[in-house]
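Tokens for RING-type domain-containing protein. Go.
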Amino acid sequence: MSSVTDDDTDHWLDLDTNYSIPSQTVDEILAENDNGLDDDFFLVDDDDSCGLNKPISPIHLTYHLDCPLLLETEDVIAHQVNMVKDRPNGGKATCIAVSEQHVAVGTVKGMAILFDKKDGKLLCFTGNTENAPVSALGFNTNSTSLAIGYSNGRLKILKTTTGKTRDFDDCVVQPDHGIIQVEYLNRSSLLVLDNGGSVFEIREGRKGPARCIFTGCKGEAVQVRAFPEENILLLSTLKQVLIFSQKTGRIISQLRLPDFPQAPPLVDYNIQIHSISKRSVIHDVRVATARQNEIRIYSMTSDGRNVTFPLSKIIKPQVESTICGMFWMDLNSIVVVTVDEKVSLIDAQRGTVTATSEIEAVELVYNLAEFKGLYTGGNVSPAFQYLAPNVCYQSAKRYSSSLYLLGSTAIYRCDLMTERQQLDRFLARKDVVSAVLYAMDVTNTVRRSNFANNNMFKFIDDKIPELLAKLLDSTMDGLESGRVTDLIEHYRKYITVLIKVCVEKKYFDILYNTIYPKIEKDGLAKSIFLEILEEHAVEGRLEHPPPELIHDLLTYLVNEGQFAQFESTVSHMPIECLDLHQVITTCRSNFLFDGLIYVMNNAMVDYVGPLEEMCCHVAEFIHKAVLSDFDIATGNKLLLYLSACLSGNSYPVGDLPPERAEVVPLEVYKFLVSLNHLNISQRTGRERYSVLHLLLQYDPLQFLNVISTCADAPIFAQSDGRLSRLIEILVGVTEENPKYMGILIPFITHLLETGTVTPNLHTYENLILRTIERISETNEQHVEEKIVNLIKVCDQMSEDRILMKAKQKPLISICAYIYIKRHEYVNLLLTCIEDKQIPNCTFDFINHLLDGVEESGQAQLRRFVTSSLNVLNRLDSERAARLYLERFPECLISSEQLPFDFLFHCFRIKSAEGSKSLCGDEDVDEGLFRSLFKGIIEERTRTGCNADDIDAELSDILLYWLPMGSRDDTCLNLASSQNLIDSTVILLLARKHYLRAFEALYERLEQSGPNHVNFEKRMMMIIEICKQSRDIAISGGWWVKLFNFILSTTQGDDMRDGYFTDIFTIIVETCGSQVSQVLDSLFSHPRLRSATFSNFNMLVTKILFSCQIDRQILIQTRNCIQVEAYDLLKRMSSTSRSLHSTVRTNACAVCGNDILQSFTIFDCGHLAHLECLDECKRKCPCDSKNVEINHIETMHNSIMEDTASISMFGQENLRLRPCPEPSDPF
């Protein structure tokens, strides 16, 4: 299927500007089913739709490489080996060897067959009389000799050029051992490895027995590899790899192997020679060891004397079974063979498996018989027998970059696929797209080259044009059948590849002169081509495209409505490739100013024209309340273009040509400061400086940032008057619109600070004065601060007029700067006090001035503040109090009459700080507190507060300042005269007038009754009075009086209330000897006299519980005294032991009674009363009797048991008892 049949046929589907369909007759149309309508074409569903407007899924340009492992059969050699398999002296193949020219195969019956490597021709063969199996084969370095090792330990040398052989008469290895490997060191010297783990050296031209260079008792060698280029020998044992120097025979390094007894140790090397110069090369030598599923890579390093092999990487490939063969194919590729008949390719750099191939058909031959010693009676170590099932040292051999595998019926060669082979495979299956992409990647060195050489890259690079021609033919051939969408996808995929390859490889001649002329004949293919080409055009990757192609591309973009891509494409095209009329017309009609700027700048050398057109467009929408995103983008583009032109740069990036760098900024500056511009003035309504008005109206901050950025450009830097002239014009513009003043002032300040403009003091002073006059119209924050910054920069500016204007507003920040600069601190504070809007800033200024003003100015300042206490107090009494307490505490002493609110805040601040003094003088503090006390009463009374609230406030104050208020009777008399009972009681208690306090409070309780809001508080107060004066309360009968008062004020239900229960309990606990009277009054109450216990169980239980607590406290106190007495006696006893022998008893050794009075201690450790000494003749009677009494310990244990048995809150102790029990000591 194709959208065209041939070059001369009319398009049956043309999606360009013209649409046409094949002509049909009426009969043909009527003959068609369903009125000639194709349902597949017209029905739009999820699977198919027509047209190019359907969302297209992205094209992923990828390809899939074939398996890089190429496994091929050596058919000629395999056929000949199979022919001798059934012969008497033939047998199955057991081992293989490969050189540059030959391939050798050994059989189980002792035959060694030599083949030509190129054509597989049989060259010669040899056998032995004993029919011992061939167990190892090896060529020398120039492939002139083949060493043949047998399972019985014998060795034969075959000359490959003549076919002659040399038999060694005696066994060259240990007796009763077979050969498992032969390895040539050079042309005539070889190493023989037997299955006893020993290594022997044999030289062809020298007679005598073989020389043992490594014995099996040192580690049982299993494999040996020679480095002919580096004179290094690798010897792999069961536990490590030993690296020998062939020159000295010494061990250079030891490489440890993982401990996996069933996995064979493997070793291989890779050498890369890098040429530095004609005479100097570097050998990059790497050694790889493997065991089980772990590969370790070592890099050889040399300092000229010593050679080392540090570990560079450990690879653990994801293989499923044990590795039995490991071969280094090239610098970055390692091939491993596993016992599950798989070959895997490993990336040595990344350590990952890149490909895996099954080789079950190979039926790999294993060297099991040799490692089990089957021919020699099993004379091998258990380690060799355990290793034997997984060994294939002699059936898998690598030569150069080819791996040969010996199978049971054939010989296989495994190679890595080259780039050319991969390319041929793509072409063989007619996958031209993958072939082209792969060829491009190879030439760009994206894909790793296995045989990296210049000839290969040159071949593939020369092949790409031919591949592009094939791909172009496949593109235009279309599809044999399918829907329109299938054809679109076909075109999209193939054309994408064509354009991508041509652009990246810079085959623009093919793209412009071969591909596009053929594609443009098909309207559908052409539209897709232009769509894909646009992606590269907007990135500027097309070099010198033909104007016809660009015209078609721009026309397509306009028809598709892709104006952003149109603009970007125009900006990246050479100006000579554009149709100027087409571009300018399209850009003006669609407001594409980037394209318009590019064309007018480069084709017409007009830089002001685009600026004028953008200004006219901005003027059209500047009056909108809300700007659209497009309007904002246009305005920002205008400012960006203006910045580029003034700074002498090209838009959007780059520099202007030298011949334009001086002219363009000047022309743009003249346009900017032009007095009148007709087109812009008509749109903005401004007759003077319409351009500046327009830019300020759009975004004044960004416009001034543009000017500030360009202030050091040559247009301004090389002429002092231009920037100053621009500033003067801007100042004049702000007169008409004062909202720009707040933005213009910091702009000027910045220019003055950077020194890019000379100061014009008169202009700046007028600007500041007008800003102050119309500060309410600026709508800017921190205008005062901006004005101050400008005044700071202009040191020589006259400040009198500015100060006068600032005081009228007033503007405190401006006044503060000028007054501080003049050291007129009092005037500053007067101005702050007069400020009706923010008078509190006065305190901030006072604190700052006191901290920062020098000593000479502080005296005047302090005098003013000291004399202005009342004024500052009216501003803020709290801040005034804090100020004078911190800065002027002497004012509290010297002032005769302080305002009440000031004094109130002083005491509150001090109490919050935890201070007990106001100014440090007790007499002054007392006088101030009396003033405060009196002031609170008068002020609260004047404002209508009731007595209880006043009393509560004074009580709270007295609780903190009681020492001051109770020093004399002033506060007490004031409180008493105002009938403030709580305050009166507090003061009476402070002066220890307990009786007066009790009587006054009791009288108030009787008057107010239990329903008063402060009843509970005052009840607790009177109880505290009774507690403080316990003796007076008992002697005066206060408890009984108080208890009877409570009983008289409570009803039956109230007595069961929790509050009254607590009150009764407290009275019972603290009334002392009056408890009996209290309890009699309680239980004689009418409600309690005839009540049941359940009604008042809480009250009775609490009373009894409190009594029980007293009893338990007495018991515990007694026990504590006894325990302390016991401890004291023990310490005395310990002290006595330190002076005499160990005390053996705590009783008198004469009379047997406890030691309760003066005693003596005998040297033997016994004790005796002093009055008993005469009876025992001052000698211890221990010879006649043995006294052992431990009364103290017994007493202590009994005490502790009694203490432990007492539970204060047990049910037994809490139950009611009619009378004290006999066991109760109290």
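Residues 619 and 685 are 10 Å apart (CA to CA).
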